[in-house]
Design a protein that fits this description.
The complex is a heterodimer of chains A (about 375) and B (about 525). Chain A has about 375 residues and is mostly helical. Chain A has two domains: about 80 residues, no CATH class; about 280 residues, ABC transporter involved in vitamin B12 uptake, BtuC (Orthogonal Bundle). Helices cover about 70% and strands about 5% of the residues of chain A. Chain A has a two-stranded antiparallel sheet with strand order 1-2. Chain A is globular, with a radius of gyration of 23 Å. The N and C termini of chain B lie far apart (about 60 Å). Chain B is built from 18 helices and 21 strands. Helix content of chain B is about 35%, strand content about 25%. In chain B, helix 3 packs across helix 4, helix 11 crosses helix 13 and helix 11 packs across helix 14. In chain B, strands 13, 16, 17, 18, 19, 20 and 21 form a seven-stranded mixed beta sheet that branches. Chain B has a six-stranded mixed beta sheet with strand order 6-7-8-3-9-10, sandwiched between helices. The chains are: A mainly alpha (about 375), B alpha/beta (about 525). At the A-B interface, helix 9, helix 10 and helix 15 of A face strand 4, helix 10 and helix 11 of B.
Chain lengths: ~375, ~525
């Protein structure tokens, strides 16, 4: 018995739609196995992981808080990946956006006005975009591999943030804790519906960005340009599109959105800068982008699923006492199955009985 | 039969019911073929008829799904090219597999399994090449050699393994007529030594001239075995295509119009170490005429196309003029806005995005010129209008397809080429530049495309056709210029052009461009 992958003549629309769900189902199965190996009841564990966080309104708010940065970053990344630009450094752009966006509340805490918040968001976007411009410039000018440069810049950003909050930006009244001062009220991103929970306007930004980019991708010439340059660069050049301009467009856009996510997270959910402001949103957003099939609308759903895995991870830690590493393991399993199931879109699985094949060969040789 | 004694010899190779299936496509369906000792056997068929698949199975690069192969009467399984070589089957591929940065001898050494010293290989290849009239310097770098010389390396490499059967895949497609004549002499000499040759071609004249027997394939099936000497090119073509092939009708050129495309002293540095530089090219194309550019592949035709289309910019704006406007510094979209249209050689990945629908591929080359019709305010794409235009082109050019708006890659080469040409014709361009208009296109579609190009010129446009297919250029051009080594000869009016004269220019015998340059200036 042998398993063969046979190339389909055309992309299968059925499996393009089904593959994320197959991947999710396989992730659940693999998760159940993982929990039993850890000595936990798999049904109970999966319940705490995926159902319990959805039972109350406040935790739905938490879901939105976690999903907002994931969706914002992932829709920007989808534009990058569709245009064949491999920005892996959204985590760094997120952090730099958070830092540049925090300049006003940290350095000028007396400056309090309605304009502070819009300025902060704008500066966050500019910071993230500027940081993403570095790998873009290196790629266009020196033909460097953007995967490596953007990834390495993540570590630079992380250490820079660490240094900032321990050094120049440390809260003078903060008892030497590595934190900045708390943002004043005019620098805090308000809650959408403060009566019921913590969800802030970052979630609205995420939905607006996703819908807007979906529109750009599917209905405009710019979207067409992104797709052509991503799928066949030479045909793109023949069409008169510039691939180096597209490198900058994709990186600046995704960097800007990651920066917006960063400052929204800091101004909305945290309220100050700390050595660690992201549980790996910039990397998890890569999974979100692919789980959402690089389609901005699909990414909204995928962002909610990944956010659930963060919440469920916390719930599972509390209720059944598994390690927080299980969250990362889950995300890894999910990404693996997402990418693996995508094979089904272009290939068909065929089971070949080896014994029959041998017989066939024998008659050939006779 | 008795006129070809060689064909009566014992069979060297016998193939029965050989079948290869790719997905749902039967690329080869129950193929029967016998090659006798000491014969030149032609394998005829259009592109996509299954010739390459068949010989790949014979050479061990592909595994058949069914059928048997007998070698000297014994059933064999050819599981790899190594097995094929051991049996005594050698192959010269259409697309060479040579390292340009290595010498000829080093390239030959790479394909030999044993560790013979390179000096011995060089000496052997030199001796062999001279004895077969294919002189070759084993110490020369492949990058410096012409396509014809590179093919010699492949042939010598094959002969060094003393095969009994030599498979040649479209060997003359990269040769000048004179080089082809030389190759035929070599093949005839090999035949007289008792070697067998399986000769793949779609050029009927040469098959008729040299081959003892022919097997004709169509859509993966054998449609007949024949003696090509008893057939006419027309009857062979009918077997290949399955119906009569129409030649494009050429009406006499009307009065020359204005100069619509002017190339003045165009030079281009090589973009990569092995790309061809363009050297001081001068050419005018007037309204109403079709100018052909002949030349062996790799002599700068692709570079010239990119320079004219604007995918590569020129240093001087005056180097390219489109409808009298200097366009050398303009990108491809701006040149299109001046009224020019371009069809590149590669269909998938250059002229069209393979995984995009036909309607999207229409937008690919027309988004700037037809911005009013196809793109609305704020860059909104008007998909309705584009769909309509795509359907119009599909009808006019008779594009056969399986779905209403399929992906480009789902179309056959000929049908996609009809769509790509139709996409540009639909704009009614005043300048049309086409690189290899019918490369890999079936005969019916090719005739349709050639007719369309002639009609465009007769309606007052300037048409420039770059092609390796001399028959095609003679069929449609009003004058033919030849590219050799990055230089372009003076165009020869069709009335004065002979196959021999063009062939000599293709071989670089006559640098005709110098006095021509002065004349234009």
């Amino acid at each position: 018995m042998r398993i063969e992958l046979v190339k389909r003549p055309e992309r299968s629309a059925l499996f393009a739609a089904l593959s994320p769900f197959i991947a999710l189902a396989l992730t659940l199965v693999a998760g159940a196995i993982m929990f039993s190996l850890l000595g936990k009841n798999p049904v109970e564990a999966l319940y705490y992981y995926f159902v319990d966080p959805l039972r109350e309104v406040w935790s739905l708010h938490e879901l939105a808080v976690k999903a907002a940065p994931l969706i914002l970053i992932a829709v920007g990344l989808s534009i990058c990946y569709l245009s064949n630009n491999w920005n892996i450094g959204a985590e760094g752009q997120f952090i730099i956006g958070a830092i540049t966006g925090s300049i006003l509340p940290v350095m000028f805490p007396e400056f309090q006005s309605w304009i502070v918040l819009p300025l902060m968001l704008l500066m966050g976007i500019v910071g993230g975009a500027a940081y993403a411009a570095i790998p873009a410039f290196l790629k266009v000018r020196f033909n460097t591999n953007e995967i490596l440069t953007s990834l390495m810049l993540v570590y630079v950003a992380q250490l820079f943030l660490d240094w900032m909050v321990r050094g120049p930006w440390r809260n003078p009244e903060g008892l030497n804790f590595p934190e900045t001062r708390n943002f004043n009220p005019s620098a805090v991103l308000p809650e959408i519906w403060s009566a019921s929970g913590r969800a802030h306007w970052g979630f609205v930004f995420a939905i607006v960005a996703a819908v807007a980019l979906w529109f750009v991708l599917t209905r405009t010439l710019r979207g067409f340009e992104i797709m052509v340059l991503g799928q066949s660069p030479r045909a793109g050049r023949f069409a008169g599109f510039s691939s180096s301009r597209m490198v900058f467009f994709a990186f600046l856009l995704s960097g800007g959105l990651a920066g917006l996510a960063g400052i929204s997270e800091v101004a909305g959910a945290i309220g100050q800068l700390r050595p660690t402001i992201s549980p790996g949103y910039g990397f998890a957003a890569i999974i979100v982008a692919f789980l959402g099939r690089l389609n901005p609308l699909g990414i909204i759903a995928a962002g909610l699923v990944l956010a659930l895995s963060y919440l469920g991870g916390e719930a599972a830690q509390i209720s059944i006492g598994v390690s927080d590493k299980v969250v990362r393991a889950f995300q890894g399993i999910l990404l693996f199955f997402v990418l693996a199931c995508d094979t089904l879109i272009l290939y068909r699985v065929r089971f070949v009985r080896t014994t029959a094949a041998k017989a066939g060969e024998a008659t050939q040789n006779a | 039969m008795d006129t070809t004694p060689a064909a009566n010899g014992p069979n060297l190779l016998e193939v029965r019911g050989l079948t290869k299936i790719f997905g749902t496509l039967k690329a080869c369906d129950q193929i029967d073929l016998t090659v006798a000792k000491g014969e030149i056997h032609a394998l005829l068929g259009e592109n996509g008829a299954g010739k390459s698949t068949l010989v790949k199975m014979l050479f061990g690069s592909l595994e058949p799904n069914g059928g048997e192969i007998r070698w000297n009467g014994q059933p064999v399984r050819i599981t790899s090219p190594g097995v094929a070589k051991k049996l005594g089957i050698g192959m010269v591929f259409q697309h060479f597999s040579l390292f340009e940065a290595l010498t000829a001898a080093e390239n030959i050494a790479l394909s030999l399994a044993d560790d013979t010293p390179i000096g011995t290989i060089a000496a052997k290849s030199r001796a062999l090449s001279y004895s077969y009239g294919l002189p070759l310097d084993p110490d020369s770098l492949v990058g410096d050699l012409s396509v014809g010389e590179r093919q010699r390396i492949e042939i010598i490499r094959c002969l060094l393994q003393t095969p009994d059967l030599i498979i040649l895949d479209e060997p003359t497609s990269v040769l000048t007529p004179q080089e082809a004549d030389k190759l035929f002499e070599t093949l005839e000499r090999l035949r007289s030594e008792g070697k067998s040759i399986l000769y793949i071609s779609h050029r009927l004249e040469e098959v008729k001239r040299m081959c003892d027997r022919a097997t004709v394939l169509r859509h993966g099936k054998v449609v007949g075995h024949c003696d090509p000497r008893q057939e006419t090119p027309a009857s062979l073509a009918r077997m290949m295509v399955g119906s009569d092939v129409k030649m494009a009708e050429r009406t006499t050129a009307s009065v020359k119009g204005d100069e619509l495309l002017g190339i003045r002293g165009l030079s281009r540095k090589p973009a990569s170490p092995f790309a061809m530089p363009l050297k001081d090219i001068w050419l005018n194309v007037h309204g109403g005429e079709v100018v052909g550019i002949a030349g062996v592949a790799g002599n700068g035709q692709g570079e010239l196309f990119e320079a004219i289309s604007g995918e590569a910019l020129q240093e001087s704006a005056d180097a390219v003029r489109i409808r009298g406007k200097t366009a050398g510094r303009m990108g491809i979209s701006a040149r299109r806005m001046l009224g020019a249209a371009f069809v590149p050689e590669e269909r998938l990945g250059h002229g069209a995005a393979p995984r995009m629908k036909l309607s999207d591929n229409l937008l690919l080359s027309r988004h700037a010129t037809d911005a009013k019709a196809f793109v609305g305010t704020a860059g909104l794409v008007k998909s309705g209008a584009i769909q309509q235009a795509a359907q119009r082109i599909i009808q006019v050019m008779d594009v056969r397809k399986s779905a209403p708006d399929p992906e480009a890659a789902a179309l056959s080469g000929g049908n996609l080429q009809k769509f790509i040409i139709g996409r540009e014709l639909d704009r009614n361009p005043s300048v049309m530049v086409v690189n290899q208009p019918t490369w890999g296109v079936d005969a019916g579609a090719a005739a349709r495309i050639r007719q369309a190009l002639i009609e465009l010129a007769r309606n007052g446009s300037a048409v420039l056709v770059i092609s390796q297919d001399l028959d095609e250029l003679f069929e449609i051009s009003d004058s033919i210029a030849v590219m050799h080594n990055g230089e372009l000869s003076k165009p020869i009016p069709i009335a004065e052009a002979t196959l021999e004269r063009i062939g000599l220019l293709m071989g670089g015998a006559e640098p005709g461009h110098i006095d021509h340059a002065k004349e234009v200036a």
